Each structure stands twice: as C-alpha cells, then as structure tokens.
Amino acid sequence: MNTQTEQEKLTKEQQLDLLDQYFVSTGEALEILQISKQSFYSLVNRKKFNRIKKGGAVLFFREEIVERQMDQASLRRKYRPFDYE
Fold first, then answer.
1. Cβ pair 58, 51 in contact under 8 A
2. What is the pLDDT of residues 22-39, one digit of tens each?
3. Would you give the DSSP letter of residue 25?
4. How far apart are alpha carbons 52 and 41 in whole angstroms?
C-alpha cells in the first residue's frame, strides 16, 4: 500500500480546485458554449468531447470545451453563413 505523508496529501479543497481546473459538468459546458442541451448531446454522441463517468457523475475535459468555444465563431460562420449576411 502506498502511503503519503501528511504534507503530500491534498486537502479536500485542493482536490476540488484540481477537479474544477481540469473538468466541467454538463451544465458548465452548456454555459461556456452557449448552446442547447440537444446540440451539446449531439456533439457528445459524435465523439467531439470525451465523457468521463464515475458513478452517477458525468464530467468533460475543460480543455476540450474551451477549444470548441474558441472554434465556435468560425464554425458558425462556415455552417450558418446566412446568420452573418
């Protein structure tokens, strides 16, 4: 069994900070991307985002969501040009 010293152990607050730093929930992803649930789940089903499941929790990599957010404007112009006329 691998034991850690007290100094090496992360507090619960530090663990939650790490979790927030690297992962987002579905609701957070929807807020970041500003898209509907239906659109988001379509992206998930098309494997645009990796889904992490642990028990009843489903999380997504923050990095993938933020990358998509940055690409979103160009994608909208490409696939919905009539919105920009």
1. yes
2. 999 999 999 999 999 999
3. -
4. 14
Q: What is the dihedral sign for C-alpha 52, 10, 63, 70? A: positive
Would you state the structure tokens that stand for residue 65, as one six-digit string? 């969501």
What is the Cβ-side half-sphere exposure of residue 29, based on CA atoms within 13 angstroms?
A: 27
Rounded to two decimals, the pTM is 0.77
Task: Please state the φ and ψ torsions of residue 13, each to the nearest 5 degrees.
Answer: -65, -40
Q: What angle do CA 64, 65, 71 make, to 5 degrees?
A: 90
Q: How far is the C-alpha of 38 from the C-alpha of 14, rounded, in Å?
A: 33
Q: Helix, strand, coil proportions of the chain in percent (round to 5)?
A: 60, 15, 30
Token pair listed for 75: 């994608």
Angle at which helix 62-79 crosses helix 26-33, to 10 degrees, equals: 40
